[in-house]
Design a protein that fits this description.
Layout lengths: L2 H24 L28 H8 L20 E3 L6 E3 H4 L5 E6 L4 H14 L7 E5 L4 H11 L5 E3 L4 H6 L7 E5 L5 E3 L9 H12 L6
Parallel strand pairs: 3-4, 4-5
Antiparallel strand pairs: 1-2, 3-6, 6-7
Helix pairs in contact: 2-5, 4-7
Amino acid sequence: MKPALRWVLVTALLASALFVALLPLTSGPQRAPTTDSAQLGQPAQPAAEPPPPSIEQLRSRAALQPCPATQSGTTRGPLSGVVLPCLGQEGTVDVGAALAGRPALLNLWGPLCQPCTQELPALAAYAAEPGAVPVLGVEVQGLPEGALDLLHALNVHYPSVSDPDGRLRAALSAPPVLPLTYLVSADGQVSQVNPPEVLRSPQQVRAVVARYLGPGADG
């Protein structure tokens, strides 16, 4: 075979092989181009966040004890006529009338107060002891949702009220610090724990009660 004819045949064979090799890449159904957000260089949209829990749901989860009811007897002292919203349920509490005739401990606190997170569990442990004087929490920062969330997280369930307008703080001439603890005597007189201290154990709470209300006040 002549060299020229040989090269013609080789070239033809190579061209046929190249055509067969490329055929699967250029045949078959064509897909329409996609236009998702990743190909366009746009970030994917985040999933919608669930709505925050309602105040009713927060109250149910916190499971606070009911706010104290009005007691019989004459109301005296600086708490007389101070009516505040109950934190754990709908309604209001006449604090002076609710505590009339019995000793009690008032604790002023707020969900943004870091030392309060140490004191609240100690107060709860004391309140659960036999013979403890009633403990009433007073949330004073006007953040009932945050307060309920924190009480739930700390497993604190004693009754609490809210003082969004500062009525109780004004009645007690409370200094601008937190937490603050007050002891209320059976005749309605109120004593501030002074100097203010963070009560970190039920033993500390019991000692404070005895100091301001007498050794037999909490049984």
